[in-house]
Amino acid sequence: MTKHETIFNERGRALTIEEWSHRIDAALEAPEAIGPIVNINDGDAREFDAIFVGGGAAGRFGSAYLRAMGGRQLVVDRWPFLGGSCPHNACVPHHVFSECAAELMLARTFSGQFWFPDIAGKTVSMKEIVDLFRRGRTGPHAVMNYQSKEQLDMEFILNAEARILDPHTVEVAGRRFHARALVLCLGARAKALGVPGEGLKGVYTYESLVETLDYEPGKTAVVIGGGKTAVEYGSFFNATGRRTIMLVRSEILKLLPDGDTRQYVVDRMRDQGVEIVEGATVSRIVDDGHGRVSKVVAKTRDGELEIDTDFVFLGLGETPNSEMAAALGAEIDAATGAVVVDETLQTSIPGVYAVGDLIGAPMEMFKARKSGTYAARAIMGEAISYRPADWPDFLHTHYEVSWLGLGEEEARRRYPNVVTIRMPPVNPNGLDIGLPASDRVMLYAMAKPRMSGFQKILFDGETRRVIGAHHVGYGARDAFQYLNVMVKQGLTIDQLGDMDELFLNPDHFIQLSRLRAGQKTLRDL
Ligand code: FAD
Ligand code: NAP
Ligand code: COM
């Protein structure tokens, strides 16, 4: 029997979430044994309006939207589930690890006090948490398949590589499919470091960590990189009780736009024991003689540094998976490897669109999902234009860090009269003030005031409009999604101060604005 003959069409059968879960587990274990998972409506005589090549957030949301608009789509993914890297190896594990980091920071800070067990000097198993994630991720995968098939009525082929034959034809699972348009949603992959020893056992990226960690890392973790991924994973490794050394070639967290906020974030990482070496260039990763990492060697401003370790994590950013687009003849940005698109998400080839991480920064979920839906709208004949601009952003350390708009430095370059409201207030005696106080930092606020967070909002003193907001703590991220829309619409201090807060509100911006909104000439607070 050929592989093709083993394919059966799931179209007429409603699989439960549990059944999906078993099937996905089996396919992840042995993809060839399960074969392509096909859900095609062979009874529909319509031509496909679009084939989405890649079923991550971008392909899944684009597919759902096109379907919702009455179009016919097909989405193809080589994994046996829809949803892509986010639930499989990127955002979701990151959130699991960051939640552990926050919980462990609390547990370590209050170790042996109140009801907290004494965990001084205790190292927590990293492998247990990675294994927990690997076991748990199939549930969300199964929900994505169930939702996409039973609720969103998508057509898909999973667990099968797509091959693009021309701008209207894709070959998958031994069949050829034609469509009016192609949408490339192929995502991105972890960047390599390009030094000797990178392939040794014990050297991980976010992708390989959750697939292949099969031992308990020792006492020292080395992290290379200084962006979101490096900081988020580094903060987790540190929270598990390991000495964590971050080797950063330039500066850590350059992406944070506000200097005070960045300082607060980096200082608190250091308080937790994270060792940050800026200006460090890794020259090699050393073999222990059995194919396993034993040491990292780096050039630093103070000379050569050698660190003994059995665990190295690379957080160096991502390269778009643009090879198939290049082979088709689409224009690729030489510097970033991203597929070049116009404001309708169309590539240089008419009828071929590209979305999500494949089109480069910002590589974030909002853009993956939104660009997918915008491509769908363009294909269905809507006049759309999409370039991500002025989006709110966030990352984790042991805290949650959220921001939007300008940092103070850039705000002062652009506006002659910048007014700031911040908490804790500028204080010559330092940070030992139990404010901001809000949910999940109340124990810190009472017992370790400097750990209770930081926030700052910036106004243009002339128009009274918000021009930037920054928050370190917990629970404010959600507000930033909505606050950003209002800021883009011209939110003023007076409007902000007139809102109804739900005390204890994590960002305090409403109440603090109310304290100043009465002033004709705004002053800092
Ligand atoms: P993907 O989800 O990568 O989808 C691409 C799909 O294409 C994959 O499913 C792949 O199997 C498929 N594919 C590739 N080649 C083929 C082929 N030949 N045939 C068939 N299928 C193929 N963003 C946030 O907003 N919040 C976060 O907290 C966050 N955390 C992150 C943490 C980490 C560690 C990383 C690396 C990223 C994080 N991101 C986060 C970014 C986010 O994960 C991405 O922006 C998003 O998942 C991109 O979606 P996508 O659909 O473009 O790509
Ligand atoms: P990133 O923001 O591009 O940061 C990459 C880091 O690696 C930078 O510190 C960079 O240094 C360093 N680096 C790159 N190449 C290097 C090399 N050859 N040698 C040494 N250092 C090198 O990438 P990322 O943090 O991995 O994130 C990837 C994408 O996923 C981003 O778009 C990010 O927004 C997204 N993401 C989002 C979240 C989230 O919480 N929302 C979480 C993780 C990732 P320089 O600064 O010197 O260039
Ligand atoms: C979320 C995956 S983890 S998707 O955006 O719903 O497809």
Structural summary, described in words:
- The chain is of the alpha/beta class and 525 residues long.
- It has 3 domains: 3-87 and 136-189 and 320-379, FAD/NAD(P)-binding domain (3-Layer(bba) Sandwich), CATH 3.50.50.60; 192-316, FAD/NAD(P)-binding domain (3-Layer(bba) Sandwich); 399-517, Enolase-like, domain 1 (2-Layer Sandwich).
- It is 32% helix and 22% strand.
- The protein has 17 helices and 23 strands.
- Strands 1, 2, 3, 4, 5, 6, 7 and 18 form an 8-stranded mixed β-sheet that branches. Strands 9-16-10-11-12 form a 5-stranded parallel β-sheet. It has a 5-stranded antiparallel β-sheet with strand order 19-20-23-22-21, sandwiched between helices.
- Helix 3 (57-68) packs parallel to helix 12 (365-379) and helix 5 packs across helix 9.
- The longest helix is centred in the N-terminal third of the chain and has 19 residues, at 91-109.
- It binds flavin-adenine dinucleotide, NADP nicotinamide-adenine-dinucleotide phosphate and 1-thioethanesulfonic acid.
Quick tags:
alpha/beta; binds 1-thioethanesulfonic acid; FAD/NAD(P)-binding domain; 525 residues; 8-stranded mixed sheet; binds NADP nicotinamide-adenine-dinucleotide phosphate; binds flavin-adenine dinucleotide; single chain; 3 domains; 5-stranded parallel sheet; Enolase-like, domain 1
Could you outline the blueprint of secondary structure elements for this entry?
Blueprint: H1 17-29, H2 31-34, E1 37-39, E2 48-53, H3 57-68, E3 73-76, H4 85-88, H5 91-109, H6 126-136, H7 138-151, E4 156-158, E5 162-166, E6 169-172, E7 175-184, E8 188-190, E9 203-204, H8 206-212, E10 220-224, H9 228-239, E11 243-248, H10 259-271, E12 275-278, E13 281-287, E14 293-300, E15 303-308, E16 312-314, E17 318-320, H11 323-328, E18 352-354, H12 365-379, E19 393-396, E20 400-405, H13 408-414, E21 418-423, H14 442-447, E22 454-460, E23 466-473, H15 477-488, H16 493-497, H17 509-517
Bound molecules: flavin-adenine dinucleotide, NADP nicotinamide-adenine-dinucleotide phosphate and 1-thioethanesulfonic acid.
